[in-house]
Amino acid sequence: MFASNDSFCLPNEFLSRDKVPASDRKVILVKGYESFVGRASIALAAISEIANELKDYEVIVYSANRKTIRLVRRIQDDTKLNIRAIPKKRLTHSEMLNLFGSARTYVGVSLSDGISTSLLEAMAMGAFPIQTNTSCAEEWIEDGITGKLIGPSQEEVKNSLRQALDNNSLVDQASVNNRQKIETKCNEEQIKLKSLKFYGL
After folding, report:
1. Cα–Cα distance for residue pair 32/62, rounded to 1 Å
2. DSSP percent split of the chain into helix, strand, coil, nearest 5
3. Between the chain's N and C termini, which has fewer beta carbons within 10 Å?
């Protein structure tokens, strides 16, 4: 987690890569933290409730702990949804960015106060972000336009997912706008220049 705009930096090779349009993607990516801060269970409850609407998608739950993995298996058994869990620390950073680049939408539910690195990576790689409204998220997302800012509520996750899946123009335009924002605010060279200027070098 990062608290300020200048703490996040993405390799230029990922920023410059051509992205598959969000509307052509068939992956729903869910942050799998379930702890005193993480609330993956809320996102998964919403997904389970609308499983019949997700039959054309693959749901991938990443950074999943044991509790989340058990919950994913239960949903899979109950709904026959195409869903799988990837345990914590199983993917490299490059593999994680590639996963974001394959996702139509990303869902992150937590009680944290800081900006989510996953939110920024989702924006950079073109996935439509659905993120709990932490203290810094409004600096990055225009609610309903470049993403959805929600409370830790099953109903809000469900409604936001439906919106992201039903509206191709929304996710495609958000992808363009978010990529531009990341390129402007998180480019490696610009961060270096800001750092040098800050230190008078």
Report:
1. 5
2. 50, 20, 30
3. C
